[in-house]
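FORM 7B: Structural annotation worksheet

SECTION A. Query
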Amino acid sequence: MNRKFEFILGLSSTYTKIFKMMDRCLSVHGISFSEYLVMYELSKMTNKSIRRIDLAENTGMSASGITRLLNPMEKLNIVEKEQNARDARVSLVKLTDAGFELFTNATQSVFQSTDIFLEALDEKDIELFLNIINKIR
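SECTION B. Predicted structure
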């Protein structure tokens, strides 16, 4: 079999395992890994807000997928819509204070699960893999 194809299959399988593991670990916080990724992106923003289309791009989701994900998060007061001061047609998504607190608590669970999932790897392995990921990007 083609080694590069094996590599792609391995990445795909690993991605699936990671997503399932993170979904399980975050279920105690009442959120999915996809929701956590949205919260992660929002937490990185200086004013904790971003345009929906940019959020979709940053998370690798479709614009409609982001909308479907954000609607329940908005009802649960994790995120809120914010009008853009320069363009009223553009709405921003912002992490609420409650959402940021949930994100902070969930991050502790994510770090614990990550440590367990990657316990067979040492720092050298992780550095090598990060270098590979950056080359692929």
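SECTION C. Observations
The beta strands are 49-51, 79-83, 91-95. The chain has six helices and three strands.

SECTION D. Sign-off
Analyst initials: ____
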